[in-house]
Predict the structure.
Amino acid sequence: MEPGKVQPYKELRSRLARRDRSLREKVVTLEQAASFVSDGMSVGIGGSTMSRTPMAMIWQLIRARKKDLSCSRCIISTDGDLLFGSGAANHIETSWFAQGILWGLSKVMRHHVESGACRYDEWSHMAMGMRYRAGGMGVPFLPIRSMLGSNVATQRPEAKEFDCPFTGEKLLLVPALNPDVALIHVQRCDAYGNAQMDGLQFMDIDLAMAANRVILTTERIVSNDQIRRAPDHTKIPFFCVDAVVEVPYGSAPHECFGVYEPMMQHMEKYVAQVNGDPVGGMKKYLDDYVYGPKSWNEFLSMIGVDEIVTASRRGRSIFDD
Amino acid sequence: MTEAPTYTASEIITVLSARLLKDGQIVFAGIGTPLLAATLAQRLHCPGLTILFEGGVVGAFVEPGKLPPSTNDQRCTKRANMVLGSADVLLLLQRGYVDVGFMGGAQIDRYGNLNSSYIGDPAKPKTRLPGTGGGNDISSLTNMIVAMKHEKRRFVEKVDFITSPGFIRGGNSRAESGLPEGGMFRVITELAVFSFDDKSREMKVLALNPGVTREELQDNTGFDVAFDDDVSVTEPPSIQELTTLRMLDPDRLFIA
């Protein structure tokens, strides 16, 4: 679908009506979950920057040689590099795109965007949030008071300046974003997809509500009893979720709140390699770490026990005092 | 008499920025110098400063030596009062709860407009920069402190692209664009402290940092520098300020 184009309400409702929303077990493998995503689909990515990135799912989509995906995320980092570098995506809508503040500009993003091969459509961070929220609310747009007067707005004709019918004030209407599929990684969920998140939730709840399909990856699958003992921790209800995949360390080498911090040695090595050569360095990274390993666990073993233990110790330390 | 302490450019920027914050304020801080300066202020004269991060953190209290690599990492949440969704913490700006927005900058012009999107023609950019993040939202909706390195290529007559609005084209153009609230308050560099003229909305020097001359400042600025009638000299960073700062960032992540 054309970026920024709002799905007609009738279509949005009928797509939802066709989903099996019954209370049923939906645990699948990474490979099976990848079959929910077709070439050219719009894909909403959960988490933010280096946090709770659904990295294993993205890794699997790249291995499955998906093409021409149009991705969105509130803030995107090395996952965006991999999506552009592998050819899995040719369009990303986000508010910020680099590997991380510590490393300056992403040469991979620059290479693909400056050459015109891929599109990076920039929105303000709040605009991304209000777009997912409008999508989740079942309305075609929401008004915001930022972006006005800036070139971020002039570059996005799909956002419309509008005079408020109540006050006459100038507002910006941002179009709803209802991705074909959302990829979200959480700390735990049950086999039905009742998902509990610890720490920062970013835009994941709105994203889950907005999407036409949700693939959940999770550090652990817990019993439904466990979920029912703390229903206030459940942030995404099962009926939003179409597939559940248990993938320990599914955000590696990024972080998952309370479980592990980013695996910085791997990140440093990655950044040096791809920024040194955004084509050859990226190809080698993909060959070595994405296409090469037989499984996600083998990828983790390449990151190494030492680094994973260090990241885990730091991750869990949030609960120490 | 003890010798005056030495400090780096990042250190004086951080210290001078921290001094602008007042106890009891609610400050929305970006990653890098803003996060560090807000945390420094909290440890010195503002124990009651409430720090917000775009990741969704309300009331951050960052631990010394454990600076987060972004404002979306778990380290930002340690000892915070609350975590929200990112959109909801940004909406606090829109509702008006935030006293000060605090950001770094890649390129700024005389009206305080910030560019973090493109170098060169946006249609055929020389460099595609990372983009706004929450910068546009913060600068659109509250009063801004910008902390940045002073270089001629960063202080330009007109930015290539307005990512985060300052006073747009000066005068009333900001309000006329649909941004009735907020605007640039101060810009802090290693050379000087700037404010903005109440009418023209042009940047002007409020104070020069120790040892900096008007000529040196002009030589490092890409537009004709305006000076306040009453330009002062900033108080250099004290030993206490520098010691606390270095305790917070022992690995010199943000004060290199």
